[in-house]
Structure formats: C-alpha cells, structure tokens
Amino acid sequence: MAKEKILVIGASGQIGVELTMALRKIYGNQNVIASDLREQNSLLEGTGPYVSLDVMNKEMLHVQVIRQNITQIYLLAAILSATGEKNPNLAWHLNMQGLLNVLDIAREEKLSKVYWPSSIAVFGPTSPKLNCPQQTIIEPSTVYGISKYAGEFWCNYYHQRYGVDVRSLRYPGLISYKSAPGGGTTDYAIEIFHAALEEKKYKCFLEADTYLPMMYMPDAIRATLELMEAPSNKISIRTSYNIAGMSFSPEEIAASIQQEIPDFEISYKPDSRQNIANSWPQSIDDTVAYNDWGWKPEFDLDKMTKDMLVNLK
C-alpha cells in the first residue's frame, strides 16, 4: 500500500492541534502536514511540517496537494456557532466553499479519504430533545448549523456521485485543556475550569439547568481516528454520524468541580448563546456509530473533571 500523506487544514484550532499530534503519532511526523491561516500553534512547533494555507484559495490548495503528494485531507477550518451569528455571510462562505474546494480536489486527485466534521448544531428547535436519533427532523436555526447540514449533503453527494471516501462526525461540545475554545456555544464548559483554578468563581453565559451534549477531547480524537480507520464497507452513513460522550448542565459541572475545589462558586448571566443552546438537543443517540464501527466513549463528567483540573494545574 502506498504511504499515506495527510494534510490537516485548520491545524491551529481547538480540534486541529490535538488531531494533528495524534495523526503524527500514527503516521509519522513528516507524513502529516499541518496548515492554517493563523500562526502555527505553539504546541505543534517542531513536531512536523507546517504550511500557511487558505482553504478558500483553491488553486493554492490544489498545488499543495500535488506538491506534497497528499492522499488524505482533514478539513477542520470553520467559523463556529456563536462567532458565526456575528457574521453570517462570512460563516456560510468559509464553511461551504472551503468544503467544496476540498471535495473537488479530492475527486480530481483521487484522494484515499477526506475527513470533515459536522456538529450537533445541525439539529434545531424541532429535533427531539432527548436521545436525538441519527435520522430525525433537522431544521437548524444558526448559520453554523445550516452550513454544517448543507455540508453533510455535499459529502454524501460527492460520495454517491464520484466515489469520494468522505467521512464525518457530528461533534457535541468539545472540552480540552490543551487549546483554547473557538467561539462556540458550549465553550463555558472549558472556561469554567480555568476560572475555577484562577478565581474560584465563574459567571456562566447559560442558565443553570441547560443540558447539552458534550465530549472530552481525548474521546473526540479517538472517535475521529476510529471512524477514519474503519473499513469503508462498515461506513453506512455518508452525511455525518451522531456521536455521544456525556450530557450535563452548568450546575452539574459546577458540582463536579466543587468535589475537587470545594470553595468554587458559580453564578449565571445568560446571553445570546442561551437561544442557540435552547435550540439544540440535550442528549444524542449514537447507536448507529456503535453498530457500524464500535464507538464507545471512555470519559464521564467526573472522570473528565479530575483529568481537566490535573492537567490545567
């Protein structure tokens, strides 16, 4: 089998940093090329090749793919939910055109695989709130959700029509101690740990009882790698897979932190992100991912809290 050469677009972002490092462990540092519009994230420095790349510049991207003999692309560059609402046109344009550029190049260069993340943001106010199933009513109310849902169907289309092996996961809120959050509605679940250690108090932008699907970053990275390494005949979903980790509310994560830091205090001042959170499901049914390629999360809330606090210290 030919050697895989992987390009990670958006490598300096919250998922990109950790996914790039995980891929380098598997495929070798030189075979995973990190790229971003931004400066290289300090955690990636010296761990392997880095190129400055704009996914919106299709010609430049195509040249890099040919020059570096790329066989797989992981496209992580996107504008997230809360940020996207501030500039809907830009969010739609970047999230959509970036994906189409990658899918087109994958088709022309016959790449072996493409990874593109979707999100629980595809679900809307009319989707089931509890154990939201793989196939259900999907009427997203944010530009981020609209772009992700449209993107799922472009992935499916390129797979059906051109045979591009593109795979996707609908990430829940992702929690990590390594890289900063990127402007999402679930970011409180990262900020709260920093605040607990630094100030012993946190003002939450969501209401106390707002349940949202969440996942600890090690589980998200593992899910991504397991999906990408599964044989293609095991992949029955070519839009995007539901995956679940845990669901909790701000008051529950605060209680979990108080077990470790008893004098931690939380207060609540909901802002515009509350409306976004209210439109999403509280929990996700990921039976299809389990049945197709054996997905199972390892972290629950308390296990994650302990790990986050130890690592942030």
What does this structure look like?
The protein folds into two domains: about 180 residues, NAD(P)-binding Rossmann-like Domain (Rossmann fold, 3-Layer(aba) Sandwich); about 110 residues, Alpha-Beta Complex (UDP-galactose 4-epimerase, domain 1). Helix 8 crosses helix 11. It has about 325 residues and is an alpha/beta fold. The chain is built from eleven helices and 14 strands. The strands form four sheets. Strands 3-2-1-4-5-7 form a six-stranded parallel β-sheet, with helices on both faces. A three-stranded parallel β-sheet has the order 6-8-12. Strands 9-11-13 form a three-stranded mixed β-sheet.
What's this entry about, in short?
By secondary structure, this protein is α/β, with parallel strands linked by helices. The chain has helices spanning 14-27, 58-67, 81-86, 88-109, 143-162, 188-198, 217-229, 250-260, 273-278, 287-293, 301-312, and strands at 6-9, 32-36, 50-52, 72-75, 113-115, 118-119, 166-167, 169-171, 173-175, 201-204, 212-216, 241-242, 246-248, 265-268.
Portion in strands: 15-25%
Question: What is the general shape?
Answer: globular
- In N-to-C order, the SSE pattern is EHEEHEHHEEHEEEHEEHEEHEHHH
Q: What value does the average pLDDT take?
A: 95
Radius of gyration: 19 Å
Overall domain count: 2
Number of strands: 14
**Any low-confidence stretches, pLDDT <50, length ≥5?**
none
